[in-house]
Amino acid sequence: MDDLGPDAASESLRAAWNTFCDRLRDGADTILDGSRPAEGDDHAEGFRHLLRRLQSAIGSGVEGGDARYPELAWVHPSKNGQDNPDGLYQVAAVDLANTYRLAGNVGTVCYLGLTLMTFDFGRAPIEQLLTLDGSALPVDGNGDFEIHFGTGPAPDGATEGTWFELPPKRCKLLVRQFFDDWDSEVPAELRIDCVDAGPPASRMDARRIIHHLGTVAEQVAPMTAFWSDFGRGHLERGEVNSFDHLDPTRGPDLALGASPQQGYGQTWWQVSEGEALLYEVEVPECVYWGVQLGDVWYQSLDWVNRQSSLNGHQATISADGVFRAVISHRDPGIANWLDTTGATQGCITYRWNQADSNPVPTLELVPFNDLPARLDDRWSPVTPAERSEVLRLRRHGALRRFRR
């Protein structure tokens, strides 16, 4: 394109920019579509979600999307696809026709997962090419490691467990870091380099920016519609305030990018101001577990300032091994309150990571005013002062993770 001369390049750039703006404008139709379950402030949250998608796509694609000089970029907040409130997600573009070196320190984070996957949302199922967790990495006594992957040949000195030969596909390296104790766990520090990358293209040319305008636009309104439709499917199938539709033997949906090391469960929740949803499940032996509330756009609720999620470290478990929680708008005065933050409906997601079983929780919708008669000491009562302290520490732990 650049050999067409400055006038032709300028017209191509103008056309690409206008198309990009038109596709962003289409986002309003997605958010205000009357067939979606959004109402009231859900629409404002929908427009915020579009902005979040735009921010994420620019950061990981335009600024960090060079497969020869990849960056393990992370975005805060990573609000997409019912993102995990305990997670730090990082992603880097790679072309496996090359060889890559991934090195660093695994830290002390509860779960570190590395997945190489194709990422053609809306065009083809995701193909997962390699998954490793921190325990499978060749670490030394300090937690440092180095591995290589690509089409080959293997680099000199590579040994078993340090070299992974893969097909020559363009894909992404997705890093999942899940924090159990937000206050003390140390994140993994990772570095990725393309071996023999050649000189960097430090300035953008017309061809590359036109490509980026197309790929960024694809990740805003279309991605928002995809996940909204995915979540809405629960509502349309009548999967509301119940997990009865789940098969505990069914594995994760790898074609949607789910971790093969994790069991998932999801349903639609609907709770009015005068209601509460009781959540109960016996917790299995596992590396990590968590439960969260999301909204109609299939994104997590505010988990920094509100207790809209809980994990194995934060939750209180009864002596009988059961996790009991209340989902409601008002504080029910128990430790395991899942705060709706003002939303009235959305998705609930739970995760069992490397668990010995995949138990399915029960849900029961009750009048909020009936809670005093339903909640005994197994539900772990807390005072308003204790709640305030928990929320203060929660906020500090969340912001610590993102260096904010």
What do these coordinates show?
This protein has 404 residues and is of the alpha+beta class. The protein has a domain at 227-401: Jelly Rolls. 24% of the residues lie in helices and 26% in strands. The protein has seven helices and 16 strands. It has helices spanning 6-25, 27-31, 41-62, 206-218, 221-236, 371-374, 384-401; strands at 87-95, 99-105, 111-117, 128-133, 144-150, 163-165, 170-178, 189-194, 262-270, 275-282, 288-293, 309-311, 322-328, 337-339, 345-353, 362-367. It has a four-stranded antiparallel β-sheet, with no helix packed on it. Helix 1 (6-25) packs parallel to helix 4 (206-218) and helix 3 (41-62) runs antiparallel to helix 4. The longest helix is centred in the first third of the chain and has 22 residues, at 41-62. The protein is globular and about 75 Å long. The mean pLDDT is 93.
CATH class of the domain at 227-401: Mainly Beta
N→C terminal distance = 42 Å
Please summarize the sheet with the most strands.
4 strands, antiparallel
- Report the helical percentage: 10-25%
Shape: globular
Mean pLDDT: 93
